[in-house]
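Recall the central idea of this unit: under ordinary conditions, the amino acid sequence of a chain determines the structure it adopts. In this exercise we apply that idea directly, starting from the sequence alone.
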Amino acid sequence: MLINGYFPCDDVATMTSLAAQWQRQDGAGTLCFIVSEAFSKAHPCPEGCCYMSGHMLWDTPTLQHIAQQASTPYIALALTTQRLLLGQHALKRMAYCAEGMEATMTYADYREQQGDEAENRCTPHPVIDCQAGSIRDDFDFGPLVLIHTTTLKRWANQPHLHVYRYAAWYDLRLFLSRQALPHHIREMLYTTQPTDRRTSGERQFDYVNPRNREVQVEMEQAATHHLQQIGALVDTSRYAEPDLAAGSFDAEASVIIPVFNREKTIADAIRSAATQHTDFKFNIIVVDNHSTDDTTDIIRSLGDELLQHADAPALLHLIPERLDLGIGGCWNHALLHPQCGRFAVQLDSDDLYSSPLTLQRIVDTFRKENAAIVIGSYGMYDFQLNPLPPGLIDHREWTPQNGPNNALRINGLGAPRAFFTPIARQILFPNTSYGEDYAMALACSRCYRIARIYDELYQCRRWAGNSDANLSQEKINANNSYKDMLRTIEMHKRQTQNAAN
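Accordingly, the structure predicted from this sequence is:
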């Protein structure tokens, strides 16, 4: 079986290397380089290859042009311009697996080259299985995929195909997943030279960069269309109205601080909560998850200190009996405590509120918007509270009309997060230490309004002790797989809800 290839290219050395490799692969058909007009005029095409004028695979005309030209049962598509080193019989193996699974798209694990080619140092880069909920626009398929040509043409020939400048590949791969989920080959079939060597903590906020705003708008359009097609779109005009006066609570709000071994930061967090100025009664609930450093003693000492001040909020120091709680389980422990307030407000054990009016602002917003959740904005700071890039994280991609749908495309919704306690008690957090807040927000947003505050309310301190500062590839994959599972569950619930209405 012949396979034609379509590879974006902006570098002569990379093009020459790819052409030589391609011609040594079993089943290799024509290799077409997608280049700018200026590049094609300045550099002759390698023998046996061809040029196609176009952009990267983000715009619709380029992908339509590929679909028109494609003449082999499958095409190989490179998703980046970085250099690839194809493994032994890589194309033949991908085609064999694609045929066997009748896959619309096939992708594989790969290796990343560390240093220059002469050093020959490579590290494995496994990717993850694609689930129904894998609709993040940054899902990692690796730089090389195999596409079923007939399905590609079906996408390109849709009568009302939206013309995208940036989201065409995303729209195509969502279309392919509606036919059948992409097939993941758990084999290292090629090697790449990565161009982005930032840590996970540095990369995670790329999508909220204001310079990417035009891109994000298109990605949201494509995701919304996909959810419409599968019957999973939330209709925010049909939201239920929570009864914020329901129930009897001793305190109007509780600041919830789960903590484990944060002796360097827990005192700052508690003092930040204790100095909030409000016109209502609130308390602080610290769930100490069996700390083994000095955290427990510090909390007790601060509790004694606050007792000396008549106007200080009560500090509840809870140590669960259970030994198997993650952050979500600690939140549940606080939520279900009889002294938990009407509104449960987040404060991580290494972060701070930006002002003494944060708590008042959040509760006022609950009442003004009649929302089940209020989510604010936060600034990035180092341990000495010097501002760090990208600065304010305000998640302005959220809109009241479509936010619950766009939330399935992105990895988070912001902070601080605050919850109307009776509704949060009905749902409860998953007992995990990653994604637990995202799961709660998705579930709430299916039925209830989420209110947003776009001013900074919260100081997120980045330091070496942060749990997401520099994750291994295995941990990144585990986190992404978990959130994709949450999305899969939530999308199914939304489909069921829509079908019943």
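The radius of gyration is 26 Å.
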